[in-house]
């Protein structure tokens, strides 16, 4: 089975700021990886897109990715993660708990530039595709 990668919103945002298409980068790794998204990532990315044409392109590309629905089980896991991590002084944004819980639920690796994802117990995190 291919490795399942859940890119965090900052991967898309950083790519756009640098002037390149993150989906083209993903396509170079389709022989060894499958890419997923979740509602939280799509919300964070799409809300910042200014041009309707770019928004439409992103929506189309998100629609063909593996979609990780935010089920009650995901919300419960995110709540448990947040509670446990907060008690240890490892506080991260709530939306990142949702992304982490989504990845943990299916055994996906999170592709991100945010170091705080590495604080999440049991979560596999990478900062670039190899």
Descriptive overview:
With 130 residues, this protein is of the alpha/beta class. It has a single domain (3-126), classed as 3-Layer(aba) Sandwich (Rossmann fold). It is 50% helix and 15% strand. It is built from six helices and five strands; from the N terminus they run E-H-H-E-H-H-E-H-H-E-E. Strands 3-2-1-4-5 form a five-stranded parallel β-sheet. Helix 1 (9-18) runs parallel beside helix 3 (39-46) and helix 5 (72-87) packs across helix 6 (94-106). The radius of gyration is 14 Å and the shape is globular. The model has no long low-confidence stretch (mean pLDDT 96).
Termini separation: 17 Å
Query: Which architecture per CATH?
Result: 3-Layer(aba) Sandwich
Mean pLDDT: 96
What is the H-and-E element order? EHHEHHEHHEE
Secondary-structure-derived class: alpha/beta
Query: Which sequence of strands runs across the widest sheet?
Result: 3-2-1-4-5
Q: Number of helical segments?
A: 6
Characterize the main sheet.
5 strands, parallel
> Strand percentage, roughly?
5-15%
CATH superfamily, please? 5'-nuclease
Give a count of the beta strands, DSSP E runs of length 2 or more.
Answer: 5
For the record, the count of structural domains works out to: 1
CATH class: Alpha Beta
* CATH fold annotation: Rossmann fold
Q: How would you sum up the global shape?
A: globular
């Amino acid at each position: 089975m291919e490795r399942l990668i859940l890119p965090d919103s900052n991967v898309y945002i950083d790519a756009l700021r640098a002037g390149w298409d993150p989906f083209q980068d993903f396509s170079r790794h389709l022989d060894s990886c499958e890419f997923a998204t979740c509602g939280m990532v799509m919300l964070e990315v799409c809300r910042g897109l200014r041009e309707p044409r770019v928004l439409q392109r992103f929506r189309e590309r998100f629609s063909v990715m593996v979609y990780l629905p935010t089920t009650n089980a995901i919300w419960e896991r995110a709540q448990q993660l947040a509670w446990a991590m907060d008690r240890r002084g490892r506080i991260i944004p709530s939306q990142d708990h949702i992304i982490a819980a989504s990845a943990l639920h299916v055994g996906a690796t999170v592709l991100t530039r945010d170091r705080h994802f590495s604080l999440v117990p049991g979560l596999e995190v990478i900062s670039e595709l190899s």
